[in-house]
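agent> fetching stored inputs for the alpha-D-galactopyranose docking request
agent> found them:
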Amino acid sequence: MQFPPIVARFPHFLHGGDYNPEQWLKWKDTIWKEDMRLAKAAGINSLSVGIFSWSMLEPAEGEYQFEWLDEVMDMLAEHKIIAVLATPSGAKPAWMSKQYPEILRVNALRQKMLHGDRHNHCLSSPVYREKVRAINTLLVNRYKDHPALGLWHISNEYGGECHCPLCQAQFRTYLQQRYRTLDALNEAWWTTFWSHTYTDWEQIESPSPLGEINLNGLRLDWRRFTTEQFVDFYRHETEPLRSLTPSIPCTTNLMGTYPGIDYYRLAEVLDVASFDSYPRWTGTAQDKEVACRTAFNYDLTRGLKGKPFMLMESCPSATNWQVVAKLRRPLVHELQSLQAVAHGADTVQYFQFRKSRGGPEQFHGAVVDHEGSENTRVFRDVAAVGTRLKTLDALVGSDTPSKVGIIFDWNIRWALDDAKGFLQDKTGYEQTVVNHYHSFWQMGVPVDLIDSTRAFDKYTLLVAPMLFLLREGLAQRIDQFVQNGGIFVTTYLTGYVNESTLTFLGGFPGPLKETLGLWFEEIDALFPGESNSIEWCGKSYRAFDLCELAHLRGATALGTYRSDFYAGYPALTVNQRAKGKAYCIAARTDTDLLNDFYRNLVQEAHIKPALEYSLPDGVTAQIRSNDKTDFVFVMNCTDTIKTVNTTQSESFSLAPFEVRIIER
Ligand code: GLA
Ligand code: ZN
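agent> prediction call returned; pasting tokens
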């Protein structure tokens, strides 16, 4: 399958990054000129401008100065560089906060913020919305026909939340639309507990340590509401852009597994998903885990829209906010960039092009360092990526086919984070999903990360770790998937609550009991250092943290617990149901069990890895394919030389962190 290029007129990889020429306005005759020369030398063909430029565009209310941006846009066009043009709402000018204090955010403690930092505006404020509409309209009118314009970059890393009176009112309206009656809301939130019944919508306040903090339904709906606020704000921001530049795609840069917004929902309104990636490379053997976690984020971002995404930001060198701002080892920059491509990115972009001279990010890695020339190691690394990307035009828009779907769902994560019980501090949803993903990554089996609302029919294998919250109709869809011949895998803590976090009655996993052929009676939480063990296929595996005590009702026990009062209870089960099978891993285990388990399953289901040879530890493979060719990326994510055997007698070796692309 082949998708169109992200910028329709430009069938190449975008290579570039955040660019802030306004910081160098006084030195533009030298610095801007030099920037263009260096951009060319680094193989850079796109730059993101205007991201935090509001005070330079509107230095006083209603007084606009676009001339500098005109010059920048012209300069980019002249050098055939695509402009990723931003709306400036990510940070507002000081005059605006002073003049209209209502736009300042209020935190959960009901404290009004002062002006400063960024991402600090109220999303409900009519004044802020009006200011955003005005500046965005001016931007689109001015640049709609500009030859440099390639994409709209909406705001920057939407995040946070506001608890001001305006947002409270919006929240109540959201709840009224969702529940219609207070009765329905009270039931969904189980408010008879502790006498929390609401008798008037006005009594409802967003969650706060000063007041209502323990009502799970309220907390979950607040997060859903916050997501809807961002969806609505994004729509508001893009309205003038869409009407005047309908063919220019819009995106906003996302942050992987950022907990505050359900990205699957936000992605519905984006034309293309984009991701800011900041892996914590260590320069040690640990880096294969870092690579896997990075791959997870890439697959997650691609899954948001099920098509190629943008690596909107990445750091070519040390990331200043990381506790240890370690330098990239040779080839690591190329690995992280090509890894993104392997997992479906059609762009490799950086934060930032030129290092700022002052401010909080003056020591954040950049393509051009304070030294100012192309004679740095980092610059050469970036230029090498530019050169390599130029050879990969055939991959632009190509698909990342996969037969395995793994569910990662913000609603589940939120419900688990709030659930009081089990292991309060380490329910570990995100890490658990990553651990399951890890087994596939290691085998080089491509995976889609999806949320529980997506269609399952394209998958042979559907994995849903800790499927704690079941949305309406999900159990039926999973059952159908299995009955039609699919293989389904889930774990402990599955099927506990419905969409409102009310528990299912009649035994867990609630409406999945038939599918799995069992029911959970109790779950044991183990202290740190404690463990049980699971015997499966003559091997013993450690079980720890959480052990579900299940009773079979049709399923077969493949593995059982070895100790404690539940010795002999099923710990790994399978249920044959119509044409398919449903597995349950009832306890948390180390990755050894997951690896063995998924290796068997992948073989049994005839799921092909990207490369049909077994890969050495820390080497993985991914596939992108267009209508004609498969491009297999073989990536050494370790700091040692690795040998990959391609047949009985042939092999090739990969240098530390080397990526090889094989066409077939
Ligand atoms: C984020 C922001 C950028 C910059 C980088 C630094 O991704 O979007 O503006 O602050 O972090 O890593
Ligand atoms: Zn607000």
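agent> quick read of the result: The chain has a mean pLDDT of 97.
agent> awaiting further instructions
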